[in-house]
Amino acid sequence: MKLIVNADDFGLSRAVNYGILDAMQIGIVSSTTMMMNMPGTSHAADLIDREGLTKVGVHLVLTSGRPLTNAKSLINDQGLFKLSNQFALEYENNFIIDPKEVENEWVQQIESFISLAGKPNHLDSHHHIHLFKPFQPIIKRISEKFDLPVRSGNQIGVSSYADYFEDGFYKHAVEEKYFHRIANKYGTENKTIEIMSHPAYIDNVLMEYSSYSDGRLNELSILMSKALKDSGWFLK
Questions:
Q1: What sign has the CA pseudo-torsion 41, 29, 53, 157?
Q2: Contact 10, 167 (CB under 8 A)
Q3: Do the Cβ atoms of 58 and 32 come closer than 8 Å?
Q4: Which three-class secondary structure string do you get for the chain?
Q5: Which of 103, 65, 107 is nearest to 84 (CA)?
Q6: Where in the chain are the domains?
Q7: 66 CB-contact burial (10 Å; exposed 0-12 / middle 13-18 / buried 19+)
Q8: 2-229 — its CATH code?
Q9: Which residues, by range, are in coiled-coil regions (predicted)?
């Protein structure tokens, strides 16, 4: 068993970027995924170049900020993505979404990453929206087009970033014991387990874009644990 700790939301803000960088360089974070439409995107690209980061993927976005394309069916009157983290309910309530615009937007996000930092390491998405059933055919085509593994890809028939995915390291479950529980759960299996995380320092941009801020600082503290780093459980 090997644990892959992925830090989501690279690029959201400078403070988020620095937190993820420390969690990767000092702590147990194995990889990160980058948002391509956020205030900290260009800063994140600079860090990739300056620090020689290689395990950076794309965190596909459809529920925060502005699109990179002229995606009229995806935006509200302010030009922001109209879907929220309640996208399934919104979709069922007759939100009209053009699947081709979704695909074009995600392709553009990946191509923007490539232009800044080369080939991504893997793909996942903000609020797991790539696993939403109407969008599964889209992520399958994109995964195959760019030859990239996907978070929980084995659920939808494409190359998967890890054998299993765990998203419970969040809010009240942010403690060292969480990793011990995961190690006990999978300890006898010759498999890889991806664990989602959101480490960050806090700045005004993070607080504007996310209701989850203080918890990210708690995550960062745990992910920098020397005891966890010395456990031998984590792929780096």
A1: negative
A2: no
A3: no
A4: CEEEEEEEEECCCHHHHHHHHHHHHCCCCCEEEECCCCCCHHHHHHHHHHHCCCCEEEEECCCCCCCCCCCHHHECCCCCECCCCCHHHHHHCCCCCCHHHHHHHHHHHHHHHHHHHCCCCCEEEHHHHHHCHHHHHHHHHHHHHHCCCECCHHHCCCCECCCEEECCCCHHHCCHHHHHHHHHHHCCCCCEEEEEECCCCCCHHHHHHCCCCHHHHHHHHHHCCHHHHCCCCECC
A5: 65
A6: 2-229
A7: middle
A8: 3.20.20.370
A9: none
Give CA–CA dist 13/231, Å, rounded: 31
**How many other CB atoms are there within 10 angstroms of residue 54's CB atom?**
11
Q: What is the pLDDT of residue 236?
A: 79
**Strand order from edge to edge, sheet including 2-10:** 123-125, 56-60, 31-34, 2-10, 192-197, 164-166
pLDDT 10s digits, 74-132? 999 999 999 888 887 877 777 789 999 999 999 999 999 999 999 999 999 999 999 99
Q: How many CB atoms lie within 10 A of CB 70?
A: 10
